[in-house]
Amino acid sequence: MTTVRLPLFPLNSVLYPGLVLPLNIFEERYRAMMRELLKTPEDEPRRFAVVAIRDGHEVAPSAPGMPDPTALPERGPTAGFGDDPAKAFHTVGCIADAATIRERDNGTFEVLATGTNRVRLLSLDTSGPFLVADLEELPEAPGDEAGALAEGVLRAFRQYQKRLAGARERSLSTGAELPDEPAVVSYLVAAAMMLDTPAKQRLLQAPDTASRLRDELKLLRAESAIIRSLPSLPASELTRGPTSLN
């Protein structure tokens, strides 16, 4: 078992390997995290782990109205995550490699990171200015018939895109070919589908690529059927992921 110890960044979204994560950092706990990451030499990866929040707030209450009008301000690395933060997070997440960390004049940060490897959360250290986690790296096994499943998922995903966009041609990346490597297909499609966080989390923690692709094929067919019966459903930009308020 390969374990690593990294800063932990909980979000209201799921990060997949290979996907880009833009962040706008303004909370002090995450500003402290970025200042620590900037101490890493530029020729070494500046890594932190991202986990999806199961129960809690991505942005801690800082004043009445932020985000709950009745909430009292909270401080510290566990703010917004209850008495037992470990229960507030999904246990499978993804390592993020920060290619860009740019500090603004007001002390906030603009960060652009990319997901790399899946990890399982083992334990939390809440003693410092930001959360730190001990993590187990999870291998990506191909599973049975991953190649054939990837081809089926790509066909179903193209139909899904057309229906979602009102029969207009679109692709995962403008002007680029869709990938054919099964693991890459599985993560890109998982990120692009319009699913809630629990569904995206289930795809992240699939035991292998083939299992994830099988689940995606079922989801794509079900979602396409729903869209077909709701022709007034507005189109959504599939290639643009959400930017965290942090």
TrEMBL record:
Q: SUPFAM superfamilies, alphabetically?
A: PUA domain-like (SSF88697)
Q: Name one Pfam family in it.
A: LON_substr_bdg
Which PROSITE patterns is this protein grouped with? LON_N
Official protein name in the record = LON peptidase substrate-binding domain-containing protein
Q: Which InterPro entries match?
A: Lon_prtase_N, Lon_prtase_N_sf, PUA-like_sf
| Domain of life, source organism | Bacteria
What is the protein's species of origin? Streptomyces neyagawaensis
All residue ranges annotated as the Lon N-terminal domain in the record: 6-224
